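Quick question, first post here. What does this chain look like in 3D?
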Amino acid sequence: MFINVYTISIIFSIVFLVVVVELVRKNKLQERYSLLWIFMSIILLVLSSTPVIINKLAEWLDIKNPPSFLFLFGLVYLLIYNLHLTVVVSKQSEKITRLVQEIALLKESLSKRGKQCI
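> Answer (accepted):
Ran it through. Tokens below.
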């Protein structure tokens, strides 16, 4: 059996795709976040299984070692996805802060009403 970077990348893509699907199936990963990972796995699988595309893209980008394009693609994707997750976390953090403030105001209002009734 001949193992090269393309074979390792294909195996990694398939295993990663199965892991993502299993995480969704077990409700440990939401579908909206899994779609980007599934999309990434499929693109990586296609690129790994057809080295002609990688060779053309690497030649177009003046990358001397075509398999390096796979790593560059993965790195760029991870940076973009990390930025996306940071935006999501920032929005959720802001929502949590507002909810905590609303709950504090409601508790304050309820405690004032409770004192007035007594």
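The first helix runs from residue 5 to 25.
The mean pLDDT is 90.
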